[in-house]
Amino acid sequence: MGRTVMKRWALRLHVAMATRRRDAGQTSIEYLGIAVVIVVIIGVLAGTTSIGDTILSAILDKIKAIAGG
């Protein structure tokens, strides 16, 4: 009985670790997806409203400041 229990726990641990490895980069991909959605929304606003132009200008200014330009 002892070996059977140990084998079950070993299998559970193996499955848990394999699942964890598959999810390792998931958060980065989710953040990238959110960023893409935000960029699309800002792009639509920039093409249709003056608020979009203001937002786009502010974002570009911040990017220039970060890049040292």
Automatic annotation (TrEMBL):
Keyword Transmembrane helix in annotation: yes
Q: Where are the transmembrane segments?
A: 29-51
Write the record's keywords in alphabetical order, separated by commas. Answer: Membrane, Transmembrane, Transmembrane helix
Q: What is this protein called?
A: Pilus assembly protein Flp/PilA
In its UniProt entry, the species of origin is given as Actinacidiphila rubida
